[in-house]
Write a structure and sequence with these properties.
With 376 residues, the chain is an alpha/beta fold. It folds into two domains: 123 residues, Aspartate Aminotransferase, domain 1 (Alpha-Beta Complex); 222 residues, Type I PLP-dependent aspartate aminotransferase-like (Major domain) (Aspartate Aminotransferase, domain 2, 3-Layer(aba) Sandwich), CATH 3.40.640. It contains 14 helices and 15 strands. β8, α8 and β9 form a beta-alpha-beta unit. α2 packs across α11, α4 runs parallel beside α5 and α12 runs parallel beside α14. It is globular. The structure holds pyridoxal-5'-phosphate. The site of pyridoxal-5'-phosphate has 14 residues, from α4. Pyridoxal-5'-phosphate binds next to α4.
Length: 376
């Protein structure tokens, strides 16, 4: 086998379709791309608190092992208890990333021949990988379409159904109809798993997420909260029952066979939670800029805008023009990335705009002007 030729052909095919990806060190001053919605990754308060923790309780740089070996600590267990408490769950288990958490959870809980995973067509790649790894049949339903979901539940009435959704979809920038989905439990039996990656810190009481906002926290088998978005740090937690945590500790491979997060990482998670508990100033700023963005962009006939904020999409529809437009916006100082297949479906390529507490009205005005000049 000529392996190099095989992978070169695949890369060339991507280039031909304008779908080639590459890492870049280029940065632009106006951030409309990162997931740091509240600016917490740069918070001086969190930085100082983490430094204080370092001074007071430093023991080791790395965790030195997985949680089941040398990587466990009283600190991580007490943090898990606080996270569970904050999210009104019985228990929580920390994972090294949201990707690990989704992949691990879904591939571990769905195992039997009679299991079916029913998922929204727009769920994150980590959920798709979890489904693949589980070996269980996956059936997709149309994005946020409760009637479609109901039809699939009806067709699978004799199976053990697991419904997997996100509460806020980070590409279309819209919310799941959580209450309507939970209402289906009155007619059909299923377990609900909700990925709250992009809702933590932004929605619900003190940023508790959309399950909190909708009052459906206790209706979920598991909720996934990731720390790499609005919390400005890294890692994730699965919130659920005590027995679910016990089961994951015993069976979930990405949890069992991976070095635990470092103390530094855990301190930043703890202080980010403390920040959002005490402080809503960043959220107020974010909501103000979202309102301003909507005021400027909504009802404009020349642009197809999707999303409710903090994520919006400007639909362009093909990879080549999306890339070209992103490039021109970059030249004006906007950090905006083109979102193309396979991240989104072909034909729905878009410019993705993430707003932050630190974006200004002047930046939004300038974006509007530049886009209009490009005859979008
Ligand atoms: C909905 C969703 N779930 C999970 C993840 C993965 O989280 P992490 O970046 O912590 O691996 C992401 C990241 O983009 C996401 O958008």
């Amino acid at each position: 086998m000529d392996f190099e030729k095989r992978i070169k052909d695949l890369l060339d095919a991507r280039k031909d379709k304008q779908e080639y990806r590459q890492l870049s060190l280029q940065s632009y001053p106006i951030d409309l791309t990162s997931n740091d919605y509240l600016g917490l990754s740069k918070s001086a308060w969190i930085k100082n608190k983490v430094s204080e923790s370092y001074q007071k309780s430093f023991q080791r740089n790395g965790a030195t092992g997985s949680r089941l070996l040398s990587g466990n600590s009283q600190y991580i267990e007490s943090l898990e208890a606080k996270i569970a408490d904050f999210h009104h769950g019985e228990s929580s288990l920390i994972f090294n990333s949201g990707f690990d958490a989704n992949l691990g959870l879904i591939s571990t809980i769905c195992r039997g021949e009679n299991d079916v995973i029913i998922y929204d067509e727009l769920v994150h790649a980590s959920i798709h990988q979890g489904i693949k790894l589980s070996g269980v049949t996956g059936v997709l339903f149309q994005h946020n379409n409760v009637a479609d979901l109901e039809m699939i539940l009806k067709q699978n009435a004799h199976a053990n159904c697991f419904v997997v959704i996100e509460s806020f979809y980070s590409m279309d920038g819209d919310k799941a109809p959580l209450k309507d989905i939970v209402a289906l439990k009155q007619k059909y039996q299923f377990e609900l798993i909700v990925d709250e990656a992009h809702a933590l810190g932004i929605f619900g009481q003190q940023g508790r997420g959309l399950c909190n906002e909708a009052g459906i926290e206790s209706d979920c088998l598991a909720r996934i909260y990731t720390f790499g978005k609005a919390m400005g740090t890294h890692g994730a937690a699965i919130v659920g029952s005590k027995i679910l945590t016990e089961y994951l500790i015993n069976f979930c491979k990405p949890f069992i066979y991976s070095t635990a997060l470092s103390s530094h990482n855990l301190w930043s998670v703890e202080h980010s939670y403390k920040f959002i508990l005490k402080n809503d100033i960043q959220l107020v700023k974010l909501n103000n800029i979202i309102e301003y963005f909507k005021y400027i962009f909504e009802h404009q006939k020349w642009v197809e805008l999707i999303g409710v904020g903090p994520v919006f999409g400007l639909k362009i529809g093909d990879a080549k023009s999306t890339r070209e437009m992103a490039k021109r916006l970059n030249e004006h100082g906007f950090d905006i990335r083109p979102i193309v297949y396979p991240t989104v479906a072909r034909g729905s390529e878009r410019l993705r705009i993430c707003l932050h507490s630190y974006n200004t009205k002047d930046e939004i005005d300038m974006l509007f002007k530049v886009l209009k000049e490009m005859h979008l």
